[in-house]
Design brief:
The complex is a heterodimer of chains A (about 180) and B (about 450). With about 180 residues, chain A is an alpha+beta fold. Helices cover about 50% and strands about 15% of the residues of chain A. Chain A is elongated and about 85 Å long. Chain B is globular and about 70 Å long. Classes of the chains: A alpha+beta (about 180), B mainly alpha (about 450). The interface between A and B is large, with 62 and 66 residues.
Chain lengths: ~180, ~450
């Protein structure tokens, strides 16, 4: 079952305003739920304390898997399952395996990474498409706080921060888990 | 931010655009009904495609005998067209992957359309080997699957099989790269849409939210995919060149082929990107996003790769002479002065002389000249493949089997038909997806918008 979250959020017109707001928020010790933007904002990740993505490790693992699959499969076929002589070459012409080994390395790494990327981001054809505001994918930069279960007088701290830092639109919305 | 900007930096986004303007401009084409020009082109493309389907059906029904290939010349228009389309399919990944690694910001204006072009061009290319095998329905024999014939495996040391793997990998990775980039832009369309349209784009956008972590992963995967696609794109045409270079045919078995083919592929690919983008820019009114600066950058790539190709042609001749091998020498002499001299002449003039015109800044910043010359380069690169393939085998070791080859209407029909397929797909694409990557253009606006660089310029 999906839990409902109560989100307070503010929209900014410029990514620089948002970056300032995030700094102020960190100074005031308010825990940011998330930041939504129409394009990647540089310098945001360290402010939010986000660790570097580990997708490239996934790519490496799948790539290695692809290389081994291709190389050992071809070796097994040519050496054990159906030994054959092509153009008087050895049964195990390893240099001639390089192109296909390389292609499968890239193929496995690419597919593995993209599938992982979709899974960890929760992206799918059936994914929840409710958004905080329609303009976030257009030109607004959104700073969101999770205020579920917070008493009314405490939510004011969030709203006043958003107003203080120049948010052009402040609102709250009840949403299923983003 | 603009205070750190180099004074020689040229704007890539004109018209004093805000983020919202970018969204409005780039999503517009998917929200309006198509214009008359689009409709006319689409109908034309469908007619051409239908003729192609007819020619393919004819080939499948009557067999490859309906082509003019003969015992001496076993590869004609089909393989020429295959290599030509694959070459065109190189520009998209080059723009999106290699230019991403080199941090070339001008890629943002053209990468989306170029990637789409890549995918469609590879589809057109794949048509030709598929038909040429004769029994297209048995083409899955290429793949190593456990079968009841032994199992009998394909020959993994044959360049033709490497081609199968290279092209299917290239196609898959290009599609993944392209779609990963499209997801945030589909989300932009989704958030503006209502009703049934919203439903469709909700599915296409995979529930993209644009959170900080989403974008971090997006940048990470773009970079690693670019890193993977860069050697991939170089490997694909290298392997295509192996189809020839590993043979024992004079004129084919030259070690210069891999770099020469890759340079040629980039050369022809950029020419096709220009041809296509100049039309798209006109039809969709994207002059503010695909600017003269983009066109000039692409023309510079054409100039470099065109020069590489020119040097390769001359090196080939020099090496043939230097080898002291009479058959090799004859093959090249025959190319230039034999029965197919006209195709050699077409290749040399279109690929070696024409790109040199781009030394002139006036020509490479002129939309008209770029369009005009890019078409000649497309033609020249087709001639190059025809010269390599057909002229080398038309005059083989035995003068009694020397032959000449001109295509039948069926072969011409299939080739023309692939243009129909290409344009049907591309025109369809311009209606359902933004042809310029919205999120990426927004991300460079502060560095390259004309209002930030304070360089207002009259658009052409």
């Amino acid at each position: 079952m999906k839990t409902k979250k109560n989100i307070v959020f503010g929209l900014y017109d410029d990514e620089q305003d948002l970056l300032k707001a995030v700094k102020v928020s960190n100074e005031r010790g308010l825990k940011i739920y998330d930041v939504y933007s129409p394009f990647p904002i540089h310098g945001l990740d360290p402010l939010l304390g986000l660790k570097e993505s580990r997708l490239h490790i996934v790519g490496f693992i799948f790539g290695t898997l692809g290389a081994m699959t291709a190389f050992f499969f071809m070796s097994w076929i040519f050496k054990i399952d159906w030994p054959n002589v092509f153009g008087g070459k050895a049964f195990l012409p390893t240099p001639a395996f390089i192109p296909i080994t390389f292609e499968l390395t890239v193929l496995f790494a690419g597919i593995g990474m993209v599938v992982t990327y979709f899974i960890v981001n929760g992206l799918s054809m059936k994914a929840e498409t409710e958004v905080l505001h329609d303009r976030i994918s257009d030109d607004k930069f959104c700073l969101a706080y999770d205020v579920t279960g917070t008493a009314f007088e405490h939510t004011n701290a969030y709203e006043s921060l958003l107003n203080d830092t120049g948010a052009t639109f402040v609102s709250s919305k009840e949403m299923s888990d983003l | 931010m603009s205070s750190h900007v180099s004074s020689i930096r040229e704007p890539l986004v004109f018209g004093n655009k805000s983020y919202h303007d970018i969204t409005e401009d780039l999503v517009a084409a998917t929200e309006k009904s198509p214009g008359k020009l689009w409709l006319a082109m689409f109908i034309l493309a469908v007619i051409v495609l239908s003729f192609g389907v007819f020619a393919v059906t004819w080939t499948v029904y009557y067999g490859i005998g309906s082509w003019n290939l003969n015992r001496t010349i076993g590869w004609g228009w089909d393989i020429t067209n295959f290599v030509w389309w694959i070459g065109i399919g190189h520009a998209g990944t080059l723009i999106s992957a290699i230019l991403l690694l080199f941090r070339q910001r001008w890629r943002t204006g053209v990468n989306r359309a170029a990637e789409a072009m890549t995918i469609f061009a590879v589809m057109c290319a794949a048509m030709f080997p598929l038909i040429h095998v004769g029994r297209a329905w048995d083409v899955f024999f290429f793949f190593p699957y456990p079968n009841t014939r032994g199992p009998l495996w394909p020959n993994f040391v044959s360049p033709l099989l490497w081609d199968v793997f290279a092209i299917s990998t290239y196609f898959t990775i290009s599609v993944l790269f392209w779609y990963t980039g499209l997801v945030p832009d589909f989300a932009t369309i989704r958030d503006r849409a209502t009703g049934f349209r919203k439903k469709i784009y909700s599915m296409l956008s995979f529930g993209w939210k644009g959170s900080a972590k989403n974008w971090q992963r997006f940048e990470s995967i773009s970079l690693v995919l670019a890193g993977l696609a860069t050697p991939l794109v170089l490997s694909v045409h290298t392997i295509v060149s192996f189809d020839f270079a590993t043979s024992v045919i004079p004129g084919w078995h030259t070690t210069i082929f891999p770099p020469y083919f890759v340079a040629g592929a980039v050369f022809s690919g950029f020419a096709m990107v220009l041809t296509l983008m100049l039309i798209t820019r006109k039809i969709l009114h994207l002059e503010d996003y695909i600017t003269v600066n983009h066109i000039e950058s692409m023309n510079k790539v054409i100039l470099v790769t065109g020069s590489i190709v020119g040097v390769a042609y001359i090196t080939e001749l020099a090496i043939a002479w230097y080898s002291g091998y009479v058959y090799e020498q004859f093959a090249f002499l025959n190319r230039a002065t034999g029965i197919y001299w006209w195709s050699y002449f077409g290749m040399m003039s279109c690929n070696v002389i024409i790109p040199q015109l781009f030394w002139s800044k006036k020509l490479r910043t002129s939309v008209f000249w770029t369009f005009f010359l890019s078409i000649w380069i497309n033609i020249g690169m087709w001639f190059e493949r025809f010269v390599i393939i057909s002229t080398s085998i038309a005059r083989d070791y035995l003068p009694s089997s020397w032959s000449y080859y001109i295509p039948t209407w069926v072969e011409i029909g299939i080739y023309i038909g692939t243009f129909g397929l290409f344009f049907v797909l591309f025109l369809g694409f311009t209606r359902v997806a933004p042809v310029v990557a919205i999120a990426e253009v927004k991300s460079i606006l502060k560095e390259y918008g004309d209002q930030y660089l304070d360089k207002k310029q009259e658009n052409i």
